[in-house]
């Protein structure tokens, strides 16, 4: 159950017909083959209980339901704010990754770090 209003608002933008909760009707929600969203859609079932963070440039980003977990329990802010018409996204700069991982694992979560190029690296 979500306690933060921001997380409740983010959950309203999810599509529960797929495991990551990606809504293809929203801006940046394309699930076409070859897109990062499609890759995450293929990858999430392999690690359904882990929070997925994927490196995109100088950030590690999460999408969909993973964002709700990071906002609710880690205090991260969603990209684009709460009034956005795009899929929920949040993340951290590469330089903050160690602290984010430490916080997540100390809270009892497992984190998976797939590479966009390989979608194969997890810890």
Automatic annotation (TrEMBL):
Query: What Gene3D superfamilies does its record include?
Result: DNA repair protein MutS, domain I
Which molecular function term from Gene Ontology is one that the record holds?
A: mismatched DNA binding
What domain of life is recorded for the organism?
Eukaryota
Q: Which residues form the DNA mismatch repair protein MutS-like N-terminal domain?
A: 42-112
Q: Which InterPro entries did the record assign?
A: DNA_mismatch_repair_MutS-lik_N (IPR007695), DNA_mismatch_repair_MutS_N (IPR016151), MtDNA_mismatch_repair_MutS (IPR053276)
Which Pfam families does UniProt cross-reference here? MutS_I (PF01624)
**GO BP of this protein:** mismatch repair
- UniProt name for this protein: DNA mismatch repair protein MSH1, mitochondrial
Question: Which source organism does the UniProt entry give?
Answer: Glycine soja (Wild soybean)
């Amino acid at each position: 159950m979500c306690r933060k209003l921001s997380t409740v608002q983010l959950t309203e933008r999810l599509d529960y017909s797929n495991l990551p909760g990606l809504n293809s009707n929203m801006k940046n929600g394309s699930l076409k083959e070859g897109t990062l969203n499609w890759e995450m859609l293929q990858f999430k079932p392999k690690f359904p209980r882990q929070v997925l963070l994927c490196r995109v440039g100088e950030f590690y980003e999460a999408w969909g339901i993973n964002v709700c977990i990071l906002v609710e329990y880690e205090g991260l802010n969603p990209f684009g704010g709460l009034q956005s018409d795009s899929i929920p996204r949040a993340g951290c700069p590469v330089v903050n990754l160690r602290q984010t991982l430490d916080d997540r694992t100390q809270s009892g979560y497992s984190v998976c770090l797939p590479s966009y190029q390989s979608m194969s690296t997890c810890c």
